[in-house]
Amino acid sequence: MTIRVAVAGASGYAGGEMLRLLAGHPEVEVGTLTAHSSAGTPLGQHHPHLRSLADRVLEPTTPEALAGHDVVVLALPHGASGAVAAQLPDDVLVLDLGADHRLVSADDWSEYYGSEHAGTWPYGLPELLVAGADGTVTRQRENLAGVRRIAVPGCNVTAVTLGLQPGVASGLVDTSDVVAVLAVGYSGAGKALKPHLLAAEGLGSAVPYAVGGTHRHVPEIAQNLRSAGAGPGRDAVGLSFTPVLVPMSRGILATVTARLAPGHEDAADAEIRQAWADTYVAEPFVELLPEGQWPTTAMTVGANTALVQVAVDRRAGRVVTVTAIDNLVKGTAGGALQSMNIALGLHQELGLTTQGVAP
Amino acid sequence: MTIRVAVAGASGYAGGEMLRLLAGHPEVEVGTLTAHSSAGTPLGQHHPHLRSLADRVLEPTTPEALAGHDVVVLALPHGASGAVAAQLPDDVLVLDLGADHRLVSADDWSEYYGSEHAGTWPYGLPELLVAGADGTVTRQRENLAGVRRIAVPGCNVTAVTLGLQPGVASGLVDTSDVVAVLAVGYSGAGKALKPHLLAAEGLGSAVPYAVGGTHRHVPEIAQNLRSAGAGPGRDAVGLSFTPVLVPMSRGILATVTARLAPGHEDAADAEIRQAWADTYVAEPFVELLPEGQWPTTAMTVGANTALVQVAVDRRAGRVVTVTAIDNLVKGTAGGALQSMNIALGLHQELGLTTQGVAP
Amino acid sequence: MTIRVAVAGASGYAGGEMLRLLAGHPEVEVGTLTAHSSAGTPLGQHHPHLRSLADRVLEPTTPEALAGHDVVVLALPHGASGAVAAQLPDDVLVLDLGADHRLVSADDWSEYYGSEHAGTWPYGLPELLVAGADGTVTRQRENLAGVRRIAVPGCNVTAVTLGLQPGVASGLVDTSDVVAVLAVGYSGAGKALKPHLLAAEGLGSAVPYAVGGTHRHVPEIAQNLRSAGAGPGRDAVGLSFTPVLVPMSRGILATVTARLAPGHEDAADAEIRQAWADTYVAEPFVELLPEGQWPTTAMTVGANTALVQVAVDRRAGRVVTVTAIDNLVKGTAGGALQSMNIALGLHQELGLTTQGVAP
Amino acid sequence: MTIRVAVAGASGYAGGEMLRLLAGHPEVEVGTLTAHSSAGTPLGQHHPHLRSLADRVLEPTTPEALAGHDVVVLALPHGASGAVAAQLPDDVLVLDLGADHRLVSADDWSEYYGSEHAGTWPYGLPELLVAGADGTVTRQRENLAGVRRIAVPGCNVTAVTLGLQPGVASGLVDTSDVVAVLAVGYSGAGKALKPHLLAAEGLGSAVPYAVGGTHRHVPEIAQNLRSAGAGPGRDAVGLSFTPVLVPMSRGILATVTARLAPGHEDAADAEIRQAWADTYVAEPFVELLPEGQWPTTAMTVGANTALVQVAVDRRAGRVVTVTAIDNLVKGTAGGALQSMNIALGLHQELGLTTQGVAP
């Protein structure tokens, strides 16, 4: 079986990482690559690290260019993928790396993105816990088999969700006052030419941004925590979210804390730890590290792994979780490839690794 | 007036930074420099960046070597300064850069440091707010004039305290559930030869440590917030504290959040912001940045400044403050020099700058 | 076919990278892992990024532990592998990542390493040009088929050799006065706990070492350039070699310059460029970049590629070549795996990639 | 005495560093600050690390705005300062941080900069050796007293010149085949918004540029080496020059090698070393480090020091020198301030330090 995959927006970081992984996928043939202002130039000019594809020439992003593929990956600016997707056949698997189809609530979308909502697609986080009205908990993976449209999650969203959801689904933590602070690498900010993204500015510095709850990933995280059992209402989740750019090219380290839920203040450490262990014991890409070992972003570079650790701070009355991912792999292109595998009925680990490139 | 200053423990990062600043202080003459295992070697072997002192030879740390100075700086490992200080004359100004004399509570000391408490010295954070029983608020500066023993605060403690105390003293924030996550440079971890402190391990990675409330700075921060008005009891402050090493040699960026206090949930942004502005309007080394501008560690490198910004996240119901300092300057040696100036009746800004070395 | 591979010295950076690659090799089964002081501890404690092998326990390095494997990789300190290798059966393929068996000249060995020469093994640089007495030029690859002992080259050696040898074999450059300056990442310095290898020291700094021709890679580079056609005598090659540690965890960027050879001063740029193009046109892992594009280390992270560019500086009368590699992949473990594939008659690209992990 | 200093082009890195130093100069009052596209905005928006000047508003760069100052610093793009300087009174001291007035040869200028030559000003490198026709060697410092126009050297030029000139003036080294490779921090590339200057691209990478002798600093270095004694003709100096961007915000580490001059091949190490020692023994800002200690850029951050070391590689027949400077201080603004002090008859060390900010 050979799957032909086209990538729209191949000149950006997300598109480039998608190509790095696709080039190593045993069942995939890389098809058309498109771009906007870079159309007509060779890929090697934008991603010289992708040697096997360096001579590929980027085409303009048109329905014709994207036709004739089994899978189309949209690595476009937020707000741009809706229009392109609308022109693609229903039987083609479309993976949207942008935000356009992630949010269920049109109000959330318009409030944080300010444009018209393009609609909601199946959410591409296979490990997301889905709490049913009857108290059962399933996983989003089950909702991805056979689908032809997938909204790939935001990178910060993936890190925060995977770190906290076991406590939510188990009812052990209170979601009304969650605090998340993330150390984020610069590739997460994209290739936009902005002064604060210059190396001279970032080297040797820690730079907070979107402080005070304005980051667009806030409603998406809340949506996921509600899925995991926080309850339906918008008020079910209170989240203080602060990302901080630090001098690394890749990686997200998410420190997420939440109070123990009322009635569970005295839950034993072992019981709390067990909730995380049980959630991820069968997951190939999400792992609770051995007790006492804390994740670092270096452990995950180039890998599709999310590494998690949890501790209870009795004096503070808070559970503290730390999650490390590679923002471009598990946080974007790797997660997308994993969801593609599931949607197409392939082994979900095809073309992905759990070994990080370290040191 | 010439002040002769000796530095015990001159081979470490704190001692080296103290010397960098002392060498530029108009009223100071650098006296004896001592070390333990490095005794007998020239300073230039340990701090080649300090050219004017490179040929100074380190002596063993003895009362004789430290005699005959107006000021003695102790830059020794935690637990070591108590014994040395006990042998120094009462009329010599002793600045302890270590933790030995910071904590008021012997219980806190034994719980977090595990040795016998060496006693409490006047606390060297001039800008610390001191809430009186009668409701008046003074500053620790007033308690430093003329003293001959000063306990210099921990670097992380200074960042978290300066960031949050205006909200505490004004009663606007609730101290029962404070969450602090810090991005910390490697010089804060000292010169100890540990595998996780190697450049190969730290470059390109974000590395959490002392997660779950075990960091020794926790009780010191709580002590300061109680001073600022959180109330006397140990339960008056709940603090979740997580430091994360990031790839920079210097700097601390402290993101600190706390809920709005009961009854103040509807306080206007302007009112909240004013509390921070009023607190620091007259302080030369602590500054609330213009609205919308967030501090970065690069702004403070080499300077004695603490740069603060505050915002209110209405949806999360939390005040978010971010504070940037140079851990070795305002966080250690600069703060010590400022306190020395105050204790000796000099202008507190002597030998210190507010201009950071950036980019 | 399944190849059982043991790794001696699995706790170090070279051993860890070997395991990262072996874990992804389709024909390999990772066998026994050994260590010295770390024997008895799980691999995950030393290489937490290698998730699939994290629970493997390290055994002491003994002939018994290494018995029963098809391949044994020696990732031991220089000077230690000779003794271990002597105890291994002749029919086992032994890959020595250390220097012990690289040098042909016992004098070179004793002069630069100061111990007794362990003997010379087939040299594991498949792309090395071998100039015959009859003027024919072959490649070292031909000498690796079927061998059972391979000396893996030094990382800096690989970068400098691949960058310059096309000019040597073609006779276009003069090898009597070669100058090489390398920007080197910290993983190249290993895991030794030395003060100058601390993150606090390396971050934001450029640090030269082994300046003045004392680096142990000097005689090995000269040996290779003689192989490529510089001529037999020790005086055939003059080399000024200076490595500089820069703040990155991986990577070597080698800038190598040499004068145009007498009689070739007027060789056209195109002719010179063609010598490099011809040498590497059929090599899967060494590539001359398109004219005008210069290699960076980021392009090669995690990949087995050596990226080369060449220019002629007419005013200086020198050819300038720049070569980028990942010191742990093409510079060590990847090159070793490639040679293993060749020795065992497998496709040389098995388990290796040309796609770098960037940005 | 109070010197009023205006800075034209205050929003860039060179202008910002000039202001950092001017703010600490005891005799200086910072006057008008101008900019081009940033006119009308506060300085704090561009240089938030300069707290004492943060509220200063940038004015358009006009003769009126720059009038009424004792000193005017031009921190403008190459090619722009000539026109502005022409409008300034003769009795005002003008420091040009740009390249416009550095080169003596109009041919060199037009060849490397492609515009019309603005003329040559006294060269602002006080330590530059000036070999007279009669064999005497003086220093450029003597030519700066009382001048009213100063061309500040290029940062790379300063590093290479100071590292090699003792060998040139002493006749010990041959200047016909000099090879220089530099590790350069990103602030040296300025604030221009170019993709390869993004943090995501630079972090974890080494990036060569202007390879093959095309860098504009080449003719300026040759001019200096001729001044130091290489002889008058353009052919007197052969220079291979390669700069490599490495992940640090500041600093230049220049590795410069040259062959021993004919007749001096057997010069003793001590004699060679003495040439460097004698040249810099009385210089406050240029220092030959103790034998065996090599400079690093971290030693010089924020300081006006150039740290030099020299060794002889007998096998290669080359002298190897390594020089470290802070590109923005000794390489630009600090060197300018030093020259300003000399021109105005002040102590040359005023407002400058030899202590680096490290680690």
TrEMBL record, chains A, B, C, D:
Domain Semialdehyde dehydrogenase NAD-binding, first and last residues per copy: 4-133
Primary enzyme class: oxidoreductase
GO biological process: L-arginine biosynthetic process
Transmembrane parts of this sequence: none
Active site as annotated: C155
CDD domains: AGPR_1_actinobacAGPR_like, AGPR_1_C
One Gene Ontology cellular component annotation held by this UniProt entry: cytoplasm
Annotated EC: 1.2.1.38
Signal peptide residues on this chain, from the entry's feature table: none
UniProt subcellular location: Cytoplasm
Keywords recorded for this protein, A-Z: Amino-acid biosynthesis, Arginine biosynthesis, Cytoplasm, NADP, Oxidoreductase
Pathway the protein contributes to: Amino-acid biosynthesis; L-arginine biosynthesis; N(2)-acetyl-L-ornithine from L-glutamate: step 3/4
Reaction(s) catalysed by this chain's protein: N-acetyl-L-glutamate 5-semialdehyde + phosphate + NADP(+) = N-acetyl-L-glutamyl 5-phosphate + NADPH + H(+)
Function of the protein: Catalyzes the NADPH-dependent reduction of N-acetyl-5-glutamyl phosphate to yield N-acetyl-L-glutamate 5-semialdehyde.
HAMAP family named among the record's database cross-references: ArgC_type1
Family the UniProt entry places it in: Belongs to the NAGSA dehydrogenase family. Type 1 subfamily.
Protein name in the entry: N-acetyl-gamma-glutamyl-phosphate reductase
Native source species: Luteimicrobium subarcticum
Underlying gene: argC
